[in-house]
């Protein structure tokens, strides 16, 4: 049996095994997918042991995405740009590291939410790993403008500087939250960790253009603090990150198996379970 796994710490609550089992069922692929808890100081050993047992690929989650980036023998351009790896594929040519998070976000926006990035003004909140992982796929979708805003402005400026090096023509700007005063956006994406603490970034009023979408990479049974605040601030549409979770998984599945699953019924099933 072809074996895959997700590795993290903690891992018990990961939805990846269920998502990949649904994909496998739907596409008729014979494979297994398990959840592996790696000790905090034992990521590389856990990967090596799974590979030695015949494992073909892994998803990598918190807190090992940077270590996976360092461990991979080859990197896709998007993993290189993200500085983090969420997907490993073990082939004859060594260990390939990819990052499907940003592509999953873009696919959720464009395919599931029918929200066009091309020509849109986009605000990306946060300058940590989640924001960095999304940047290259977002810029590749040709927004009119992309502003990175962060509570600590210096981090946003540094991130923008880094990506201007990779994509010199990109319409990329950066600032602190106060620097957003007077601006409005078609798409506002929350890539901060604020929702984990039931907090929302403190944004100036009127950043939501008419018809705009507020998107939180986090998700939960009830709307996140960011989405509640966005609703009050006049965002026309609200979306959480459950679709991104399913889409990044589909992207990994396609890389491993060469088949792209239909995410719609899987997302519907996960949404039903969340309620
Ligand atoms: P991740 O890998 O999830 O992106 P991270 O690298 O620790 O996590 O980054 C967390 C991000 O969330 C940062 O952009 C952080 O802002 P600072 O750089 O100013 O710390 C942001 N963040 C966390 N809590 C926040 C809050 N309550 N309001 C606004 N931004 C917050």
From TrEMBL:
HAMAP family: Shikimate_DH_AroE (MF_00222). Homodimer. PANTHER family: BIFUNCTIONAL 3-DEHYDROQUINATE DEHYDRATASE_SHIKIMATE DEHYDROGENASE, CHLOROPLASTIC, SHIKIMATE DEHYDROGENASE. GO terms for cellular component: cytosol. It is an enzyme of class 1 (oxidoreductase). NADP(+) binds at residues 126-130, 150-155, 217, 241. Involved in the biosynthesis of the chorismate, which leads to the biosynthesis of aromatic amino acids. Catalyzes the reversible NADPH linked reduction of 3-dehydroshikimate (DHSA) to yield shikimate (SA). Its EC number is 1.1.1.25. This is Shikimate dehydrogenase (NADP(+)). Belongs to the shikimate dehydrogenase family. InterPro entries: Aminoacid_DH-like_N_sf (IPR046346), NAD(P)-bd_dom_sf (IPR036291), SDH_C (IPR041121), Shikimate_DH (IPR011342), Shikimate_DH-bd_N (IPR013708), Shikimate_DH_fam (IPR022893), Shikm_DH/Glu-tRNA_Rdtase (IPR006151). It catalyses: shikimate + NADP(+) = 3-dehydroshikimate + NADPH + H(+). Residues 241-271 form the SDH C-terminal domain. It holds the Pfam family Shikimate_dh_N. Residues 6-88 form the Shikimate dehydrogenase substrate binding N-terminal domain. One of its GO terms (biological process) is chorismate biosynthetic process. The gene is aroE.
């Amino acid at each position: 049996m072809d074996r895959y796994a997700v590795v993290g710490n903690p891992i018990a609550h990961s939805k990846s095994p269920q998502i990949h089992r649904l994909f496998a069922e739907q596409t008729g692929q014979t494979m297994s997918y398990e959840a592996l808890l790696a000790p905090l100081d034992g990521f590389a050993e856990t990967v090596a042991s799974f590979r030695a047992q015949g494992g073909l690929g892994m998803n990598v989650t918190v807190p090992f995405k940077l270590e996976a980036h360092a461990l991979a023998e080859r990197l896709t351009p998007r993993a290189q740009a993200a500085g983090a790896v969420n997907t490993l594929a073990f082939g004859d040519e060594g260990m390939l590291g990819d990052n499907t998070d940003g592509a999953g976000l873009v696919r959720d926006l464009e395919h599931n939410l029918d929200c066009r990035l091309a020509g849109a003004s986009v605000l990306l909140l946060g300058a940590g790993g989640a924001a960095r992982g999304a940047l290259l796929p977002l810029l590749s979708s040709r927004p009119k403008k992309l502003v990175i805003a962060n509570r600590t402005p210096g981090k946003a400026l540094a991130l923008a500087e880094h990506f201007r090096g990779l994509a010199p023509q990109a319409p990329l700007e950066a600032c602190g939250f106060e620097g957003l005063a007077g601006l409005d956006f078609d798409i506002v994406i929350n890539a901060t960790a604020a929702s984990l603490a039931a907090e929302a970034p403190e944004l100036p009023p009127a950043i939501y253009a008419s018809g705009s979408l507020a998107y939180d990479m986090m998700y939960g049974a009830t709307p996140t603090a960011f989405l509640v605040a966005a609703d009050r601030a006049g965002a026309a549409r609200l979306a959480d990150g459950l679709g991104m979770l399913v889409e990044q998984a589909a992207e990994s599945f396609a890389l491993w198996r060469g088949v792209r699953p239909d995410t719609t019924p899987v997302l519907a099933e996960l949404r039903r379970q969340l309620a």
